[in-house]
Design a protein that fits this description.
Length: about 220
């Protein structure tokens, strides 16, 4: 018997890999992508391509414009950091305040409507910038919140937030995805792409992606095309 799961799908390689790993476990995926005012809006096109590749049951795109608040170089006019030494103990300007809390809350609402008890998010606490909402402590707290914030929870149901990548390096993520036959040429990671969508190759996300492919001994198809 297949169970339903709501997966947060950004169009990046992390969410693609996390979704594929959970799908391999037998879950039927319902994909949720959020336009939150991000400057790298091209990732929505990537999310559509990834959702089609995965064969999800349904892909919902929703607008929640966090740029109205600002507070991040991804949603405002502050320059995206480039060509820097990444300090994983530092919370960078690309952190979007409470983004994963907002996204998981929306996913939780849809899951309750579907009768699903499983959410999927591609957060990573080991080999990524120091975002507080990518840590195991946050995920555990959200699961507790879900149990008291929903009718299903009050009636005894429990929700699980699947984070299959949380302790993996970027190279391990890429190696896993390639073993699953994923086409990373469909994905987009750059925080500050050119108007035609080409990655800048200099922001934190581009640097970490390049390092991951190098350590995995693989060629990034986005750069090879």
């Amino acid at each position: 018997m297949a169970f339903d799961a709501v997966v947060l799908l950004s169009g990046g390689l992390d969410s693609y890999t996390a979704a594929a790993m959970v799908q391999r476990q037998g879950f039927t995926l319902h994909a949720l992508s959020v336009r939150y005012g991000q400057r790298h809006a091209i990732e929505m096109a990537a999310a559509r391509a990834v959702a089609q590749s995965l064969g999800v049951a349904r892909h919902v795109e929703i607008d929640v414009d966090l740029s109205a608040f600002g507070g991040s170089s991804l949603t405002g006019d502050t320059p995206v950091p480039k060509d820097r030494d990444i300090d994983r103990a530092e919370i960078p300007s690309t952190y979007v305040p409470a983004r994963n809390t907002v996204f998981l809350s929306i996913a939780l609402g849809w899951a309750e409507v579907l009768g699903a008890r499983d959410l999927v998010i591609g957060v990573n606490a080991r080999d990524y910038s120091g975002y507080p909402d990518c840590r195991p402590e946050f995920i555990e707290a959200f699961e507790r919140l879900a149990s008291v914030a929903t009718a299903a929870g009050v009636n005894g149901a429990s929700f699980t937030v699947h984070t299959p990548l949380i302790q993996m390096t970027k190279a391990e993520i890429i190696t896993t995805g390639l073993s699953l036959g994923l086409d990373y040429g469909l994905t987009h990671s750059c925080y500050d792409p050119a108007p035609d969508g080409r990655p800048c190759r200099r922001c934190d996300s581009c640097v970490l992606r390049a390092l991951g492919f190098a350590e995995a001994g693989a060629i990034d198809p986005v750069l090879a095309s």
